[in-house]
Amino acid sequence: MPELITRPRRALIVVDVQNDYDGGNLPIEYPPFSETVKHVGQAMDIATAHGIPVVVIRMNLPETAKVFAKGTHGAELHPEVASRPHDHLIGKTQPSAFTGTDLELWLRQRQIDTVTVVGYMTHNCDLSTVIHAMHMGFAVELLDDATGAVPYSNAAGSATAEEIHRVSLVIMQARFAAVLSTADWGAHVAGGTLPHRDTLYESNLRARRVA
C-alpha cells in the first residue's frame, strides 16, 4: 500500500501535452500554457537525471474529432515534450491513461509504486489518471505548476479555468494525490522521499475551523 512506501520507485506520467492546448482548439487558460509546459519539461529533465522512467501519453482521436484529430498539428506532441527522451509512448482514447492501455502492466513489470502526473488537463485526464492510479494502489503525485485548465459552461453552470484548476487540486490533495510544485518535487526526488498527502477528515476539519 502507498502508506507503507519508505523510498518510492517513481515513474513520471506526461499526459497529453499536445499542440491543441497551445492556442489550438482547446487552449489552456489557467495557469497559462506557456508557463506550465516549461515545468513539464523541467519535470522530464529531473526524471531523466535521476533515472526515473518517463511515460508519454498522447490522446488519439478520429479524423473527425474537434480536438486531437488524427493527422492534425493539434494532435501532435508539443515540442517541449517531443524534444526530450522518454521510455514509453502510449496512445489513448479515454481520459485515464490506464484505460485501454498497457500502462499498468508496464509499471508493474518495473516495480513502480509511485506515479507522478504532469500534463493536461488538471480536471479531466489528469484527475482521471490520478484517481485510477490511486484505486490501483499506487502512491500518486501531481505537479500543480505543470498542468492547467480551461473554462466550462454547460447545463450544470459555469466556472472559470482558475476555479476549476484550484478546486481540482484541493480535491486531489484531500484524498487522491500529493499536490506540489515541480521544484518541491525535485527536492523529494533528490532525497528519495514522498510528499505529504492529506485526508478527507483533516481537510474538512481545517475548513470547518477556518469557517
Count of beta strands: 8
Classification by helices and strands: alpha/beta
Could you tell me how far the N terminus lies from the C terminus, measured between alpha carbons in angstroms?
34 Å
C-alpha-based Rg, rounded: 17 Å
CATH hierarchy: architecture = 3-Layer(aba) Sandwich
User: How would you sum up the global shape?
Assistant: globular
Estimated helix fraction: 25-40%
What is the CATH class name? Alpha Beta
Number of domains: 1
CATH fold annotation: Rossmann fold
Walk across the major sheet and give the strand order: 3-2-1-4-5-8
Element order, helices and strands? EHEHEHEHEEEHEHH
CATH homologous superfamily (4th level) name: Isochorismatase-like
Number of alpha- plus pi-helical segments:
7
Mean pLDDT: 96
Q: Can you summarize the main beta sheet?
A: 6 strands, parallel
Roughly what fraction of the amino acids lie in strands?
Answer: 15-25%
